[in-house]
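Pasting two entries for a bug report.
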Amino acid sequence: MTRVAVIMGGWSSERPVSLSSGKGMADAARQSGFDVVEIDVTRQLAQQIADVKPDVVLNALHGPWGEDGCVQGILEIMGIPYTHSGVLASALAMDKDKARAVYVQHGLDVAEGGMYDVEDLARDHIMAPPYVIKPSAEGSSFGVFIVREGANRPPKELTDGTWTFGKRALVEKFIPGRELTVGVMGDRAMAVTEITTLRDYYDFDAKYQAGGSRHVLPADLPNAVTEAALSASLRAHQALGCRGVSRSDFRYDDKAGRLVILETNTQPGMTPTSLIPEQAAHMGIDYPSLVRWMIEDASCPR
């Protein structure tokens, strides 16, 4: 029987999401007949994995260290097959500025902007509002601020000690319109979901609280836009060198007819409110089958 170690938790700001994803995937793997061991990750992860001697590692970590190539490097050194993307793709996708460069090189449209020192951002508007400030390497919308049109100054959080996401941040022009997301499973794009929320934007609570957002699947879009979003997500997945399942997020400005890629998530959430399980179900793939596919897809890509 194949022994699967599900690694989850960790110490990033996305720990609660990871624990939820990990628990769900561990239960699903057991339903499929795998011998499953759950590991709440510490900084002694290599020893934790060595102790349980898995055949495969199912990576349910989210955020820095678990999703940015660090854990992937440990697993490569140990020679243990693991799910999701490898070292380089994980690192590229987590670094939003580096990912933007890859997108542009492969003909994908990105919002105007770039990286700036947080001190400069706190001093005055770096561009005319509306614009978005994002940490360069975080997920689940942690540290994201939308500076609205008419704002007198940048967010106070940049100077009052609230900002804990590094000395530099990504600033992008705010793209009006609709929030879209597209999953990729292996070599095929899955579906296009439109996300709506009554909150200011699709933040952490909107993503993970029951009723925090509404997912329209499939998104009600012209066929040409749907096809463009599916194609762009697959191109992003391949350009970054992703493996297994990924999910790319977009803004679609229906007035300008512009589809802008925001980021690619190499380890999308697998919680009860997550988007990838919904898209898989839409394709006729239930949750246990999706998890089984991830485990069977695991390898050491280097």
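Entry 2 (this is the one that rendered wrong in the viewer):
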Amino acid sequence: MLDSFHAAIKAADPAQIVSRFLPDLADISGHVFVVGAGKASAAMALAVEKNWPEDKALNGIVITRYGCGLSTHRLEIFEAGHPVPDEKSVYTTQRILEQVKQLTENDLLLCLFSGGGSSLLSLPSDGISLADLQTMTRQLLQCGAKIQEINTVRKHLSRILGGQLAAASHAPVLTLMISDVTGDDPTHIASGPCTPDPTYFSDALEILKRYQLNAPQNIRNKLIAGVQGQVRETPKPGSSIFKHVKNYVIASAHLSLTAAKKYLQDNLFNVLVLGDTVTGEAREVAKVYAALIKEIRHYPDLLKPPAALLSGGETTVTVKGQGRGGRNTEFLLALLIELNGLSDVYALACDTDGIDGSEENAGAIITPSSLSRAQKKGLQADEFLTNNDAYSFFEQLGDLVVTGPTYTNVNDYRVILIV
């Protein structure tokens, strides 16, 4: 399971991918300015540096998550807050916007975006404080909203997301993206700083109502003003702003699942890929997977063991308890409860960026003995699930998967082995 996870990560390694998408410098009479944001942005920046001619000028500013920085010589890399933005996010983003506004039509803006870029590239719109944005972000992350919904709100509280970075540039724009969102729609990768935004202030306001969020008054006022036409909308599809913008998704969950599938097939597993767009509440998705596993165990003709089920995507967790953990450990804990000690079934669920939620683990594993080992330790799995405390459960079992930063991010990876 761990080796298949590493095969998935390798397939999304910026060092192996970025060089194929770099611009032809013969077409650029001015200079190239690089902007990056996301958990993979430092690795993408390093890949640009290593493949850039020594005699060609290169400079830029890249923001990544604390602990995900790398050493570069020509590009500045800063670390900032994720998933909640902080002062460094705002300061560095302000510097980026100021530099981009100075570019001319003879220059090139080269953007490197990946998952996590939405919070790292933070510049609140007028009248909204960083504290307001932090409060709103925490509420959105805990209410069970989809990432597309979260990003819809973020775009309308920002001066740089939702196509506004491209709008600030007089230079042509080339954007390379590593996708961590289901469907790989560029408008939702890092909240689409250089892509058209098909959403509106009214959509953002509706999301607050849908999840009954107690947003700061300044944020409510901003969204209402936008609905009333008192605040300019984000650039929309068809806008002339994007005439000289090119966006490329260079890595995705689908490509990583394909690599993992090949690895498992080479090791004689019969593999079924359940898709790279799995969404929904983590514990509810686990119930569906448990039902499928039981069906295969009872009727092996459906998928003859040794079998592997693979999937990607991004589940959600509605936080009601006081515990620790991310969506991958919550999925596994719910799956463990549903399987109830079923023999010959193993599972791993990890985030490809090496960080499940806000903890230091990528995810965890379960084995046929996990439930009995937990019971011997006096751990009641259902109590930990109720408290959203999957991290503590797997920590006490010694079954966390800790990889450290992977310097890429193509969302979650799940593998279930039926042997």
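Dev reply: Rendering is fixed now. As a check, the viewer should reflect this: The two ends are 12 Å apart (CA to CA).
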